[in-house]
Amino acid sequence: MVNPLLSSEERLQYLEQLSKRFVLAPAYPNTKVPIGKNWNNPDPHQPFNRTDYIGNNAVIVTGKPSDLFVVDVDNVELFSFLIKKLNVEIPKTFKVKTGSGKFHIYFNYPKDGKDYRKKKKKVLGVDLMGDGGCVVSPKSIHPDTKQSYEVIENILPVDPPQWLIDLYWDNRAAWKNVDVRTSKHISNEIKELIINNAEKGKRSEAMMSVIDSLVSKGFSDEQIFYTFYSYSIGEKFISVGDTRDEWLSKQIEKARSYVSTNQGLLELLESDKDEYYNSIINNIDVGFGEKFIQAAPPKVAPIIEGILPQKGCLVIIGPPGIGKSLFTLNISMHMGNPPAKGIFELLNVPKPVKSVFLQSENDQYSLWNRVRTITSADPGMKSGYRNVFIPSFNGRSRCIGFVFRSEYFRKLLMTLKQKTGAQVAIIDPAISFMGAEENSNSEIRASLDSLTRVATDADMSVILVHHPGKVGNMGVYTGRGASALADWASNLMTMNIVSMNNTKCVKITIEKSRTSAVIDPFHIMLNENLIFKKYEPHVGMVSTIIQVLLQNGGTISTQAGLLDAIKQYDSNISVSGVKKAIEQAAEQKLIRITVGSKNSKSFSII
Q: Across the strands, what pairs with 126?
């Protein structure tokens, strides 16, 4: 039966007036579903056709067509909590009370030139409606309650406040939407309590169990509030009234203190290990091998082509003082803002990547000074550093005491992943986190396998920084201690000091790569701004060529004669480097190359 409101003359006149302000489209009766396929691409000059709306609901097209940006408040209590947490106010603007008793808050479309599409912020209790979206218009019927949508603030929309714009673009991990029903980090026992609650008389105890569990698994305050405002576990919490937010905040704070000293007990009670192993055992697929060879090759873009795959690892080995920490800091900035020609014009980074830097050797001032020097000198590196996260706590930046095999390391990495969204964890040096006898292959391997499991669960790649072995124990892989680390690493890179053309530089060798073809060794240099650059041996050689020609009267009649003269000037030359430098000097019109009979060449200063 069609609601009489949908056919009333008063309503049709109202919608016609509303269509002069916003772009409308008809929707099926008692639904939120627009009629037709082109409702979100309307003709703004199409006149209002009242017959389209007789017996039908109406929707208002959001975004640019109506110059509208609408806050669809799906959870009033949760949104109110956010407003208090942010300490902001909602300006007076056009506002509609929905048929379910919630709200649509209308604002003008932002004028900053950016595109605002529909974006769900379930953890904050709202959907933000922009381009490609719509909201049910006033004088339409809610499909469940059969109540009408009514205007409660009938004024022109105002511009959205800055805090709302910031909210739209803020993708912090703490505000990431969570579906506890499918979360792999919550035990089935806790999921059951969240979704169905406990029986009366046990609900207070159930709430604390849920809070302790969510805190122990690294869920943010906002995600915990969302859980209590959205699921049955929060029934008693909501009934507390105006003091509920303060109460839950205090319980979360107590839980964080409790979890920090009872982590092992909580893990045991929640049977995480049983769940982990049973999940593997119960879901073993013995047909994987056949499926694997029949399937198309996996299409997974690497983090850094040739040396760091997604969910893979890179071990960087170099002697003390060579600049391993600076090198990895440089690499992390390059990953954050990939150079157009690749890192050192060799290593392509397909897309920007966030990284988190766990280190145990540098204090905050040293790190600050390094970062400031690099970012002050290079705008590209400064931009890349926005995607680099260096954790600190209580004024300390050295992360000490967390070992790969401990549950605390798992919790730390999961928390950092949640807070930053990082795809790469840089660990410097590896020995500080190994928690194993460095000469024991079995202990080192067990520790690294634990790291693999945690990094896989966190969906992160890993870069490990390691020290070389003693002189006389070099071999192909020069890592100190047990060989298990080199066996474990899918990619391994060494750094060594060498002299090129009387210039001290660092030779980079990809000793091992399971993920790409062989990459030839290359050389880099650290400049005064603490930035590693590709070493170009022929650049300095141009001046050497000019000097040699001057010493020989400005002309040398053969290429062999020029090479011999340069060798006397610099015995460590690279012949290929000299030839490149000769070409460069000629291109710069510093020297003239004259071709004689039988392709002989003479060289002279211009």
A: 73, 121
Q: How far apart are CA 489 and CA 347, in angstroms?
A: 19
Do 409 and 475 reside in the same domain of the chain? yes
Instruction: Let me know whether 101 and 158 are in one domain.
Output: yes
Task: Identify whether residues 522 and 577 lie together within a single domain.
Answer: no
Distance CA 170, CA 174 (A): 10
Q: What is the residue range of 64's domain?
A: 4-175
483, with CB counted inside 10 A (0-12, 13-18, 19+), is: middle
Tell me: pLDDT of 268 over 60: no
Q: What is the pLDDT of residue 292?
A: 58
Q: How far apart are CA 425 and CA 411, in angstroms?
A: 14
Judge whether 299 lies within some domain.
no
What pTM, to 2 d.p., does this model score?
A: 0.48
| Contact indicator for 563, 578 with CB cutoff of 8 Å | yes
Contact 5, 13 (CB under 8 A): no
Q: Which two tokens stand for residue 408?
A: 């605390």
Are 550 and 404 contained in the same domain? Answer: no
Of 437, 367, 362, 366, the C-alpha closest to 403 is: 437
Q: In this predicted model, which residue has the larger pLDDT, 291 or 561?
A: 561
Residue-level pLDDT at 54: 92
> How many CB atoms are located within 10 Å of the residue 356 CB?
23
| Integer angstrom CA distances of residue 499 from 223, 317, 540, 574 | 55, 19, 14, 11
Name the residue with tokens 């396929």: 37
- What would the pLDDT profile of 87-130 be if each residue is shown by its tens digit? 899 999 999 999 999 999 999 999 999 999 999 888 889 999 99
Query: What SS3 class is residue 451?
Result: helix
State how many domains the chain has: 4
| CATH, residue 569 | 1.10.10.10
Query: Does 259 lie in the same domain as 332?
Result: no
Count Cβ atoms below 10 Å from residue 537 Cβ, excluding itself.
Answer: 18
471: confidence class by pLDDT, cuts 50, 70, 90? very low
Spatial CB neighbours of 266, under 8 Å, sequence gap ≥ 6: 212, 213, 216, 259
Sign, CA dihedral 141-143-147-149, equals negative
Same domain flag for 426 and 504:
yes
Q: Which residue has the higher pLDDT, 236 or 62?
A: 62
- Determine the Cα angle at 438 with ends 436 and 439, to 5°: 125
Instruction: List the beta bridge partners of residue 103.
Output: 73, 97
Rounded to an integer, what distance in angstroms lies between the CA atom of residue 572 and that of residue 210?
A: 69
Would you call 446 exposed, middle or buried from its count of C-beta atoms within 10 A (0-12, 13-18, 19+)? middle
Q: Is the domain of 390 the same as that of 444?
A: yes
| Sequence letter at residue 340 | A
Q: Are residues 556 and 503 in the same domain?
A: no
Gap between the Cα atoms of 117 and 110, Å rounded? 11
